[in-house]
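User: Thanks for the earlier help. One more: Methyltransferase domain-containing protein. Can you show the sequence and predicted structure together?

Assistant: Of course, both are below.
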Amino acid sequence: MRAARRARIVGDVDLRQGRCLEIGPLANPVVSAEVADVRYVDVVDRTGLVAHYEGNPAVDPDAIPEQHFWLTRPDGTVSTLAEAVAADAPYQHVVASHVIEHVPDMVGWLRDVAQVLTWDGALLLAVPDRRYCFDVHRTPATVGQVVQAHLDGDRTPSVRAVLDHFMRAVDHSAEQAWAGEEPPTQGSHPLDDVRRHVARQQAGDYVDCHVWPLTPQVFAGLLDDLLALGHVDFAVERITATRVGDQEFYATLRRLDRRRDPAVATEEARAALARLRAELPDESPSPRPGDADLVPAHVVADLEQQLTETRERLAKVRSARDRARRERDRARAEATDPAPRDGTGLVARLGRRLRP
């Protein structure tokens, strides 16, 4: 299961080529040392992560790897990603699963990632789709909010982000969303908790939350706007629709070649992104039970693709099974066919092996 998800995140990128940085692996790294030459970075070190998630049933503390770098300095201030990993950069690949929606300053973060990549490096993203998680009631992120956070120099999630997250979050899973169940209207965080988190933010604490509610179309639109404004140094190579039954989508961003004319590189990147956006499905609400005639074409196509993949895996399993059965039957035949003393039995057996 983990290998299959990693394949969806990585796409066509070969992680064995060059060095890799994974941001925020927590207890479920996408990339392990067996897969690539990888380093890990998070907001705090492993001890801090274990303490922060103590008692959280969703996080296995024993599975949290040692962090090679962390953003929080000894004095409590927070460094940038580029500052934290500067001594070890550059990397060929940066992997970030369910990270970009948390970063306080998306523009600054994308610039940091570009800074620590090789000139042709790739940023590989897995991003939760707000329609299929606790963000379902939240308004999608806007380019104005993204640019404002950058101009404000946010190093921690803003009051706006903390309030939007904790006031609007609801208990709603991808399974419930795809089944067409209405999300609850009651938020999952009591007002006292909301006030407490805001007070922490005002006191200077890093209050982790979803800063940017995204969907494939919203994310593609943001990147196009940021490219037009000259705020990002990436072209978008791939952006997927959210698979039926899942809650996340995937994107591959390739660093713009700084040896080229920036205006030309940006124009080409926007043209390529326009083609990708045109291939993304319309983001109308998920179909509800009984709406079979209204199932969007992309949902049908996705189910057909998953069925094809399942059939291919089944064919491989059957082929391996049949091969094992043939080898077993051959071994049994040889064990019950003793060779005569004149050696004709051996010749006969060799003949059977050579016959198709």
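User: Great, one quick takeaway?

Assistant: The chain has two domains: 2-279, 296-354.
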